[in-house]
Amino acid sequence: MQHIDINEIKSWDRFYRGNFINSLSGFKSVSLIGTINTEGITNLGLFSNIVHLGADPALIGFINRPIAAAPHTVNNIEATKSYTINHIHRNIVAQAHGTSAKYADGESEFDAVGLTPIFKEGVKAPFVKESLIQYALELVEIVPIKHNQTFLVIGAINHVFIDKDFISKDGFIAIEKAGSITSLGLDGYYDTTHIARYHYAKPFEPVIKIDE
């Protein structure tokens, strides 16, 4: 096994280094975040750092890059307190990746990549019509991360739109039934395959599969 220390990593070309570090943490969830500004212009951003923070209350977090690099999503959320998260499937992965381009103020990624904004009662922000699992959140807190000028955006789930066939009898969402994909690094996308589920593990007891 090759040993690579941080000094060698720092010596690499920045694009090579970026690909390496972004791939090192492994597969990640990837979704589209929909927002709208106070002038009514929609925005759609691709995020692969979305993380579950708690079930009660139901909280989801994501990391937003520094404001200078990616201002639209976090500014819109701060202004309206509302945003949506939309799963990506194989049929829309190219359009989803296209939203990562740097569009100017006043330009909507929905229009640019050919995805459809849809508004639902009680939610200010747009959903992605083509997405098969969608949920809306209300802003709870934006936490600055001083070390690299990024932000942890924390939201509370208040609406979920999902086909009931994707939900198992115990509440587990089999997202592979929706074709939800995963990502690796900055530009790699992968299908998912279910392997198994297991009962709650207890010390020194056999690990037992859940019958499905």
UniProtKB/TrEMBL annotation:
Domain of life (superkingdom): Bacteria
An annotated Gene Ontology molecular function: oxidoreductase activity
EC top class, as a word: oxidoreductase
InterPro entries the UniProt entry points to: Flavin_Rdtase-like_dom (IPR002563), Split_barrel_FMN-bd (IPR012349)
Keywords: Flavoprotein, FMN, Oxidoreductase
Protein's UniProt keywords contain Signal: no
Coiled-coil intervals: none
Cofactor: FMN
Pfam (any one): Flavin_Reduct
Record domain Flavin reductase like: where: 30-165
Known EC number: 1.5.1.-
Family statement: Belongs to the flavoredoxin family.
Name of this protein: Flavin reductase family protein
